[in-house]
Amino acid sequence: xxxxILHTTFLTADLVRARAFYEGLLGLxxxxxxxxxxxxxxxxxxxxxxxxxxxxxPNPETGLTRPAHGGRDRHVALGVSDLDALxxxxxxxxxxYTLSQSGRRALFCRDPDxxxxxxxxxx
Length: 123
Known about the structure:
This protein has 2 helices and 7 strands. The chain is globular and about 40 Å long. The strands form 2 sheets. It has a 4-stranded mixed sheet with strand order 4-7-6-5, with helices on one face. β5 and β6 form a beta hairpin. It folds into 2 domains: 50 residues, 2,3-Dihydroxybiphenyl 1,2-Dioxygenase, domain 1 (Roll); 52 residues, 2,3-Dihydroxybiphenyl 1,2-Dioxygenase, domain 1. With 123 residues, the protein is α/β, with parallel strands linked by helices.
């Protein structure tokens, strides 16, 4: 009886660097209403009922080789209203990405902590 995905969590080793990516590059806004935890982190609202949670915690997979294409790795898929504008911002910031290999209008990139993200055009 699953009714939705409420949030996804990513580990980060450098919260300042991760926030620059999620806030500065992707344009997300911090949800200041979330409770404090026993570790540092930040919540971003995607919709009123969907969030991304960054947690400043050690990555247990440090040194693990990730696939070059994020679609071949565990990832979260996020809808975007303007995929072309996002790809231009990623290119300008020097963030590498790959296009979906399925033919969908989508791209994959990695955040500064090597977490894979998929962005799908919702037009």
